[in-house]
Amino acid sequence: MPRSLDARHERFDLNAPFRISRGVKTAIDVVTVTITEGSHAGHGEGVPYPRYGESVEASLEQVHAVRSAIEGGADRLQLLELMPAGAARNAVDCALWDLQARRSGISVAEATGLTQRRPIATAMTVSLDTAPNMARAAAHLKDVPLLKVKVDERDPLTQIRAVRSEAPKPRLIVDPNESWTLDLVERLQTDLATLGVDLLEQPLPANADEGLAGLRSAVPIAADESAHVAGDVERLANRYQFVNLKLDKTGGLTAALAFADAAEAAGLGLMTGCMVSTSLSIAPALLLAQRCTFADLDGPVWLKRDRPGGIREENGRLHAPERGFWGDL
Fold first, then answer.
1. 166-187: average pLDDT
2. Domain with 227 in it: what CATH number?
3. Known catalytic residue at 150
4. At which of 105, 135, 155 does a domain end?
């Protein structure tokens, strides 16, 4: 049966500025892919990220470049050869998963063996701001199970202490987004442990993380910007204790599952994360989160308007989208 592929740019406004060490955003731009075959349609979303040299325009070009192959019947495994890892392939891959579920009558959860529809504790993010503002934001999140605090290199201890002063109970991820130096990582070890930090995420620039090799860190360190695909595992294994699997980096759920297998085989712990995105990005990541120790999937919480029927966040826990939203019958 013939297929058709549609790819388009959509923009979603945020309900508050989202600040990290690299900048601030007030809206997100996503690429939405729909693949239709007969009466069935599968949907997927990717969030092009400038940090990786991506743009909406370039991502749309990548999708259009494989249109004839996809419309001719190319499957998810062939897609791995047709497109590079990144947001564009993520959108196509997840649309193919969704289409497969609707055509076969077998949900993506069943197909992957990740069938338990339980709420997932997600990191709720305190974005980078002045210490008093970060404390105020943390006060509203003091009862969630997991917090993530965005910091930079200027005064991270003050930032972390401000959050901890108002939210002493949640587990805590600290994310400098590549802004620290190795000297700063080493100097803050005791303080991070004292403040009850459970995970330090990508403290060093991805191209300068060799200094982490052999470091006896007081808290586990997770690779984010350094970790993209399964082929990275050998390089990461002696520098990090966790890897952050983001579908926009791996290029879809298919590659993310392979990356998870490789990481676990190398003794690395798993985390799954997201860009600020809609629930169409989070639905497949929510399945992957069932295999992970840490999940950071609060992207849709930052939106003024999410897609109808998407995930529901309740006190730091994500509930699966409505039946039929993505990957379900």
1. 97
2. 3.20.20.120
3. yes
4. 105
25, 150, 169, 304: which one is catalytic? 150
- Please check whether residue 329 lies inside any domain of the structure: no
Does one domain contain both 201 and 286? yes
Q: Is 246 tagged catalytic? A: yes
57 is in an annotated binding site: no
pLDDT in tens, 126-139: 999 999 999 999 99
Tens digit of each residue's pLDDT (9 = 90 or more) over 13-57: 999 888 887 788 899 999 999 999 999 999 999 999 999 999 999
Record the pTM.
0.95
Question: Does 125 share its domain with 93?
Answer: no
Domain span at 166 = 120-319
Residues 6 or more apart in contact with residue 142 via CB below 8 angstroms? 166, 167, 168, 169, 170
Is 224 known to sit in a ligand binding site? yes
CA–CA distance, 260 with 83 (Å, rounded to integer) = 20
For 283, the enclosing helix (H) or strand (E) is: helix 279-289
Whether 175 has a binding-site annotation, put simply, is yes
**What is the C-alpha separation between 260 and 283, in angstroms, rounded?**
17
